[in-house]
Amino acid sequence: MEIMRPPTQHTEQQEERHSCAWLLHGLNTKPEKMSALQEYLRKYTQSSSVGILAGHHPDRMPNEVISASQWKSEFSSQWNNAISDCTKPNDKRIFVGYSLGALVALSLLDGSFGIQSPTHMVLIAPALKLRKKVAIVKAISWLPFGALPSLNHRDYRARNWTSLSAYDALFDLNNAWKKDAWKISGTIPTLVFLAKYDELVDSQNLAEKVKDFPLWKTIWISNEASTLKPAYHHLMIDEASAGIDSWTRMKSHIDQLLNENLEKTELKYKSGE
After folding, report:
1. What pLDDT sits at residue 213?
2. Using one digit for the tens of pLDDT, what is the confidence trace for 167-182?
3. Chain segment 195-206, per-residue pLDDT in tens
4. pTM of the full predicted structure?
5. What is the model's pLDDT at position 20?
């Protein structure tokens, strides 16, 4: 005789699930320019916030000395604070990193800082593989003082000059990341937005590496329709910089990544759809 069991009673606490998002800017990019993505993510999260790294505070000296370890420490403390309400196994911890922001995050996912990993990532023009021409800057980045004019769009740059110590910290992170690449980050469902003609990132080389990870998906973005003058291919973090059609595509792919049916989402990623 079949024994009838009463339906399982789920408490409100058991069913409760939190989602947190944290976003991080690129090198010499105003943190507030991540606000369009932050606002879009609000429909998926109970909390979303934007981090800020040394060298990007408007009220500090433009020639402050910066190090990779400093950026790592700042990331760790700000990330832990941002996800403090999303630490349970079923919670979502969403990280969105642009350029330098993506590099800092992945440099910490080797377990060295003991941070809790994101459950989903969105990486925009991540500074993981740099073009050879960037080596020109690397040749002088070791100098303790000095700065170079920012090549970022004037409306998006945090400062008119980028310190050599900031570049040196960027190269330190890039070198360290290459030694311990993909340890944990390759196991996280991730979107990688790339531009074919990115001025700084070797997008083609990076796209080949991404193919090694079934939970990572490359999305090629053209921002030729950007309303910014001049257009900057490395910059695609809102409608103005990406162009309206590309911005719509980016949001659509983010929707797929963050769909509540995680099993379905992961299957799509594995099949390369």
Report:
1. 85
2. 999 999 988 777 665 5
3. 999 999 999 999
4. 0.86
5. 96
Q: What is the DSSP string of the chain?
A: -PPP-PPP---HHHH---EEEEEE--TTB-GGGGHHHHHHHGGG-SEEEE---TT--TTS-TT----HHHHHHHHHHHHHHHTTT--STT-EEEEEEETHHHHHHHHHTTTTS-PPPPSEEEEES-TTSB-GGGHHHHTTTTSSS-EEE--S-TTTBS-SEEEHHHHHHHHHHHHHHHHTTTTTGGGS-EEEEE-TT-SSB-HHHHHHHHTT-TTEEEEE---TT--SSS--TT--SSHHHH-HHHHHHHHHHHHHHT-S-HHHHHHHHHHT-
Q: Which amino acid is at 137?
A: V
Alpha-carbon span 230 to 227, nearest angstrom = 8
CB count in 10 Å sphere of residue 165: 24
93 in Cβ contact with 173 (< 8 Å): no
